[in-house]
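If your schedule permits, I should be very grateful for your opinion on a structural question. I would ask you to consider whether the tokens describe a fold that such a sequence might reasonably adopt. Thank you for your consideration; the sequence and its tokens are set out here.
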Amino acid sequence: MSSLVCALLSALALTLAAELSVAAILGVRGWDLVIIGLVNCLTNPLVNYAYWWAWALWGGVGVVPYLVLAALEISVLFGEAVMFKKLLLYRKIKPLLLSLILNASSFVLGIIIALLGVKF
């Protein structure tokens, strides 16, 4: 298996662990947890693959990959909020705020892992 595929699968696994744990702590239960997991299976690999390409194309151009990452994360934030609004029964937290909390949790976990230099 290629290193890119391994990296994408590792990122997805960590994202699912972080976001589903936080969602459960927030009181999300049953099929709503499954839906959140499936939404992440759609969005996470796309974002990570696009970010990988941004580094491959513009990695030496300073801020460009980070601008791409910001645009991707904002797109995911709103895209997931729309999906949550349409698909989830959970209503204790508004879909946009839920998306923000969940995405922030996995993003921060990713930063911590990167800073610690952990390899998967």
About this structure: The chain is about 80% helix and 0% strand. Residues 24 and 30 are 9 Å apart (CA to CA). Residues 31-58 form the longest helix (28 residues).
